[in-house]
Amino acid sequence: MGRYVARRLLQMIPVFIGTTLLIFLMVNVLPGDPVRALWGDKPPDPAQVAQIRHDRGLDLPLWQQYLHYMGGLLQGDFGKTIAGNRPILDEIKQAFPVSMRLAVMAWTFELVIGIALGVLAGVKRSRLVDNTVTLFTLLVISVPIFVFGLFLQLIFGNELGWVTPTVQDSENFQQLLLPALVLGLVGLAYVARLSRTSIAENRQADYMRTAVAKGLPRHRIITRHLLRNSLIPVVTYLGTDIGTLMGGAVITEGIFNVTGVGNLLFDALGNREGAVIVGIVTVLVLVYLLASLVVDLLYAVLDPRIRYA
Amino acid sequence: MRGAKSAKWVAIAGVVALGATACGGGGSDNGNSGKVDPKGIVSYANGEPQNALQPSNTMEAYGSVVIDALFTGLVHYDKQGNITYENAESVTPDKDSKVWTVKLKQGWKFHNGEAVTAKSYVDAWNWAADPANGQQNSSWYRDIVGYDDVHPAKGKAKKKAMSGLKVVDENTFTITLKNGIPYYAYKLVYKPFFPLPSAALKDPKKYGESPVGNGPYKFKSWDHKKSIQVTAWSDYKGEDKPKNGGINFKAYSKDTAAYADLKSDNVDTMPLVPNSEIANFKQDFGDRAIEQDFSAINTINPAFYTKQWKDIDVKVLQGLSMAIDRDTIAKTVFHGTRESATGWVAKGVKGWTKDACGEYCKFDPKKAKAAIKAGGGVPGNKISIQYNADQPHKDWVVAVCNSITKSTGVQCVGDPVTDFAADTEIRDQKKVKSIYRSGWVLDYPFNGNFLADLYGTGVDGNKGGFSDKKFDALTAKADKAKTIEESAKLYQEAEKELQNSFPGIPLWYNKTLSAHSNNVKNVEFDQAGDPILSEVQVFEK
Q: What's the gap in Å between the CA of A181 and the closest CA on chain B?
């Protein structure tokens, strides 16, 4: 077990270097000069452009820029923004806690409501409950997320006035409730569908018949035997989804004006703030890698037949 | 730079807009008493400023509006484009408009108690001109004698101060220019010409985070990416004393989010309604909707360095211009929120005249076809219009193209570029294939700004490589005029001359489209599109 974890952690190093290098190169290939863009449609001042370029190290050859950047990163220095010359670490420190809150809340919705719906539908297969859940999840998956976001904003924010249309304080859990629900909707539907199918399949398994024959109480059969065995595909999905929820909430964050990672990334891309993009992606890659490690370890917990040596 | 949106956002908001009208537009009762609270706080939908809050380092909209609240410059202008005096008692040129004497009003102070003197201005400008201090607006001092010593094209400053700036006494200083500029006072309106307290030059970083100015509002707090708060300053000496207690500049990353908040009175006003709401905002806000002239102009400009336009007969350009049905497109694509342009200078600036473009800016398909034929036709019989796809340009580009093709048979297609940064890069590198879209917002309310600064041979703003000796001679003459009035008149002649060379095809004048919440009244915008926040009055809750 310990050796397995160590090996996985070591594997992270090449993945980490590979992704950062790739992103770094991709950002540099994008057309448009971030320093020039500071002047908008007005003519830039060449002396000042040269000064900013030199100051941010953009006049070095690309490989030097990358090494320089990685060197700083190892010491916890994410560099400075091109516009405004602010430490990128500050921006990341501000955005990640917000996204973390949003993602964890959305993730909880997925986990709790999604699995509950899935169990309900899977156990009562082909009945009214099942059909309702199937129909609901189909609707959620097929309608784009921004439609839900704007619709719920209009209903609860503008019409009913229960909440403010946008989030006023991005660190307030209560205000993040609505965006988190919107963000978690699609995942919730997938989780419900995955667990429904898996449960419906496992219900026919031999060990289930044995458990019923033994005369175990129903809730015990479902929670201890059926659910535990059916959760593997769901856990796989939930594990990778936490990363997606953190970095991929651009649309939801935009609608509700949440100052999270998605917005930061979107703005950085628009302004060609290469160092900001690489910085965020670096942290996101770490989140993904760790989440997938946890998922793999959870397999062993859920299914005793899986062993890591 | 504000309001960059993707086409996706436009689509989204269209969906919501439909929903909103279906639901009857909210109709929330305003809970105010109708009485004005002089201590009330106005909230304004803004965004995170790009740079630290230094006047000489701020040129984008989010920072500018905050700087304008915190600082007051020497002069400003009124709605007719005439100079008004603010911190300056007088600004007078000598007979060649070369040496300008600035006299300050007495008794003005910075928020920290330091007196505003001639030195506060001169030191601030010299500091900002030094490239080592990284101030983005420093090229604004380039007309002043000695600028090239402080700010050489390459390398470090050779001197610390521009020799053209001289402090005469506590309240007087002189500016000596390299060449006489009759309208130089207009340039002094711009932010790099604001004063700074002496402490700000010693510790620019600290004062960039918590600025100390001499304006109507005093800095209170800056919570990055959330809000900037300023409060009315009771010791302010200027005319524009705030009629409210302060401003809360709230940061929004998308204008659609700000619009949603504005509809529910969660923010009091915003700079520009989202493009997707242009068709609905008057319905949504009724008498609280705002539509005001804004001195900006849209054009499409041929790239004169290409094979296609290099030696073109001007008749072809005149023909293309006459082939565009500006009025109909303004009505359909812009829902009547733009006005067809009749010249190259935007409305609301000194020296603007109607019909400078004459018959060539009026839609006439028959004449258009004939003119293009007479000029030998468009080389290749095909044009493309380059635009940036991150802003809502596609619809009107397509409409203009259709209009041209329908009237003249010249093929026309849009040439979208991912975003504004990529678009400017192509223009800077002179790699535009045929024609590009262009827009210009006033730097100062004077017609010369739209002429010499855009179409003069070799000037920075001239992206299309246009060059016309006659026009250059006329602008040079206008720059030698004795008074502003005379110069503006001469510039009008230069504008008329553009009929015969057509550096760009004028399309529309812009308007500021906004609205305000139920909590406030007296919300107005000036011709630069900036809100006049000190005039806003807040109702008692």
A: 18
Topology at the third CATH level for domain B35-70+214-268+515-540? D-Maltodextrin-Binding Protein; domain 2 (3.40.190)
Backbone angles phi, psi at B505, to 5 degrees: -100, 110
Judging by beta carbons within 10 Å of its beta carbon (0-12, 13-18, 19+), is residue B234 exposed, middle or buried?
exposed
Residue whose structure tokens are 């060059």 = B467
Amino acid at B514: S
Residue among B122, B21, B120 nearest B71 (CA)? B120
Is A157's CB within 8 Å of B264's CB?
Answer: yes
Q: Do A255 and B256 touch (CB under 8 A)?
A: yes
The fraction of chain B above a pLDDT of 70, given in percent, is 94
- E-strand stretches of B30-113: 41-46, 75-77, 83-85, 88-93, 99-104
In order of their start, the domains of chain A are 18-74 (no CATH), 95-302 (1.10.3720.10)
A261-270 helix and A274-302 helix, angle to the nearest 10 degrees: 140
Residues of B in contact with A51 (CB under 8 A): 131-132, 134
Instruction: Give just the sign of the alpha carbon dihedral B342, B344, B349, B351.
Output: negative
Sign of CA pseudo-dihedral B232, B238, B239, B240: negative
**pLDDT attached to residue B153:** 83
Class of domain B291-509: alpha beta
Residue B11 has pLDDT above 70, yes or no: no
The neighbouring-strand residues paired with B84 are B76
Interchain CB contact of A160 with B (< 8 Å): no
Q: Name chain A contacts of B50, Cβ cutoff 8 Å.
A: 38, 83-84
Provide the CB-side half-sphere exposure for B232 (13 A, CA). 20
pLDDT for B488-527, tens place per residue? 999 999 999 999 999 999 999 999 999 999 999 999 999 8
Contact B419 A48 (CB under 8 A): no
Separation between Cα atoms, residue A69 and residue A275, nearest integer Å = 8
Contacts for A190 with CB less than 8 Å, ≥ 6 apart:
A114, A137, A141, A237
Chain B hits for A146, CB-CB cut-off 8 Å, are 8, 12
In DSSP notation, B213-242 reads -SSSEEEEEEETTTEEEEEE-TT--SS---
How wide is the angle at C-alpha B160 spanned by C-alphas B154 and B163, nearest 5°?
100
Determine how β-strand B435-441 pairs with β-strand B289-302.
antiparallel
Task: Give the mean model confidence (pLDDT) for residues A199-208.
Answer: 88
> Residue A205's CB: how many other CB atoms inside 10 A?
14
Sort strands B411-417 and B435-441 into parallel, antiparallel or unpaired: unpaired
**What is the pTM (predicted TM-score) of this model?**
0.86
Amino acid in position A218: R
pLDDT in tens, B154-168: 888 899 999 999 999
Name chain A contacts of B19, Cβ cutoff 8 Å: 150-151, 154
CB < 8 Å to B426, chain A = 31
Of B5, B264, B387, B415, which to mutate for an interface test with A (greatest number of A Cβ within 10 Å)?
Answer: B264
> Which ipTM was obtained for this model?
0.85
| Mean local confidence (pLDDT), B210-219 | 96
User: Position of tokens 């045929």?
Assistant: B434
How many residues are listed for chain B in this entry? 541
Q: Which of B135, B138, B253 minimises the CB distance to A257?
A: B253
- Domain ranges for chain B, please list them: 35-70+214-268+515-540, 71-199, 291-509
**Interior CA angle at B161 toward B61 and B117, to 5°?**
70
- What topology is assigned to B71-199 in CATH? Dipeptide-binding Protein; domain 1 (3.90.76)
Check CB contact under 8 Å for A154 and B20: yes
- pLDDT tens by residue, B465-482: 999 999 999 999 999 898
How many other β-carbons are positioned within 10 Å of the β-carbon of residue B64? 20
If we measure between CA atoms, which residue out of B527, B541, B534, B531 comes closest to residue B186?
B527
